[in-house]
Amino acid sequence: MRVRVRAAGVALVLLAGCVAPSGGAGVARFEFVERHMGCAARIVLFAEDERTARAAARAGFDAIGRVDAVLSDYRVDSAVERLARMDVGESAGWEPELIDALERAARVSEESGGAFDVTVGPLVRVWREARRGRVLPSAEVIDAARGFVGWERLRVDSRTRAIAGWRKGMRLDFGGIGQGIGADRALAVLRSMGIAQALVDVSGDLAVGDPPPGERGWRVLVMEGEDGARETLMVARCGVTTSGDAEQFVELGGERWSHVIDPRTGWALTRGVRATVVAGDATEADALATAVLVLGVERGIELAERRVGVEARVVERLVGGVVCGETTGYAGLGVRGWW
């Protein structure tokens, strides 16, 4: 791990675009955008003709929609909301997407010591209300919501698709992993249709397929600072996520509160932090990016370095400057040096 201190004013932003040739080897580049999971979802792919491209993109967007129909906490008919209306006990026969999401989330929760936790839903609701009403929640309200949070309480059986350990008042929130799952599902559908050279972007959570024709990877642009300085990562067959509070925050009680919540304390983050994670798929990158934000530079990078095939960079704002940390292999991903 490398940790360095730099001057203030650094912002790390993953642009939702890529640079690739317009064709080659009998294929052309196509790009499609639809709104899914509360944000713009983008599919970029290479196909032999427009008809093939449109059919593949339609199937990809439908896959994202199916994930949203299961994991959304805004849709009253979703599996997440149906589970929230349950009282206590165990139930079986839940959608495979929900069971898979819970299992993937639990692994990151365990490895991060609870810094990532999809049972954070009650706290998310408290902070959503705080942002809407612009009133800081009390410690009593936070503590009450925390009583329903704890990933270790849930037990999942993938064979019967059963969930045990639920009690009334618990709520799931897949905001830190759901978009990555959606991107991965869409990319898998494209591959099943013979479209391997593709990239799916769901609000900055990228599922990256085979490189474009004539390229060794997809160029993902990372912006640093108000002066517009940039770095380009060259990636393929992986997931990439950048998370932070550059846009999603609220100022209450004289402090800046992030949309990211520490499930262990119940409080939203007040330190400005941003993380870029490259992992085996978008699901892993999405969840790890959230965990890294909560853990901070040193512990976040330590978590990333324990995961095989994961690279990460974290930038945390401090008074008078910032602290930057990155995994030892991160710099090798860049087309040009970061420092």
Could you please describe the fold and organization of this structure?
By secondary structure, the chain is an alpha+beta fold. Among the domains are: 2-20 and 215-333, T-fold, CATH 3.10.520.10; 79-167, Orthogonal Bundle (T-fold), CATH 1.10.3980.10. It has 8 helices and 18 strands. The chain has a 10-stranded antiparallel β-sheet with strand order 1-18-17-16-13-10-9-5-4-3. A hairpin with a 2-residue loop joins strand 14 and strand 15 (255-258). Mean pLDDT is 87; it is low at 1-24 and 335-339.
Features of this protein?
T-fold, 339 residues, alpha+beta, disordered N terminus, 18 strands, three-stranded antiparallel β-sheet
